[in-house]
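For the sake of clarity, the format in which proteins appear in this thesis is described at this point. The record quoted next illustrates the convention:

___
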Amino acid sequence: MSTAGQVIRCKAAVAWEAGKPLSVEEIEVAPPQKNEVRVKIHFTSLCHTDVYFWEAKGQNPLFPRILGHEAGGVVESVGEGVTDVEPGDHVLPIFTGECKECPHCLSEASNMCDLLRINTERGGMLHDGQTRFSKDGKPIYHFLGTSTFSEYTVVHVGQVAKINPEAPLDKVCVLSCGMSTGFGATVNVAKPKKGGSVAVFGLGAVGLAAAEGARVCEASRIIGIDLNPNRFEEAKKFGCTEFVNPKDHNKAVQEVISEMTGGGVDCSIECTGSTQAMVSAFECVHDGWGVAVLVGVPSRDDSFKTHPIHFLNERTLRGVGTG
């Protein structure tokens, strides 16, 4: 029986307040409107960014809210004007979408769409500013335009990527964020050369993907930096050749890496959100050509300090929301 055009009742994990346990509730999910897609979520992952915004460290509090942005699902129905996907298509929700028309989308140098770029403050849909989620007639806000902690969600058509239906949704769901973010930060932004050296700060899912990107680029040295040595063995599978635990040294980790590499690595990827790690990632790259890429999400009021001489010595600092 088709549910197109109808309100769907389903379960969702709702964040009612910052830092309070999520509550599994029966909610209503309205049909998709113009340029929108309703997706049945089959698998969703938990990214640390979800935890970060659940704690309200990164934005003005906006609750109740359905978090989640790393998932795989199947299109249930589409709204007016949608031609890119149709019911039955397997898709990945994407938190930074593409309208395909703005200067960013038309540029090979950027994926920061003017219409669909990351906006953590927006709780409604672009079409009318309203939410498609509700409970007992009261709205529940969206998150990153994806809200995958729900059995059904509604997203802008520019925020779904159609995938091969044979791809296992429980595996490829991580391509919605962690894998593509870390891998892309290395391959598309840092761009290490064959035989080069790369330092990866933080060996969680994003960091492992960043290391894999360095391996694919055929870097000769991939140095994993983490405070948890239990992560080191697993990281070898993703290309890490050596490791540094900052707690094992009585000097700044950037000094340790500089000494290990004869002046610094060619590229570094920071995947922690720690401003201390961001400074270390920047200051550990080689002068003259080193590139540091920041991926981790800091707290809203964070800032970090580094001496301008590092820029004058021709180090480059870049950032990326997703690769």
Q: What stands out?
A: The radius of gyration is 21 Å. Residues 178-190 form the longest helix (13 residues).
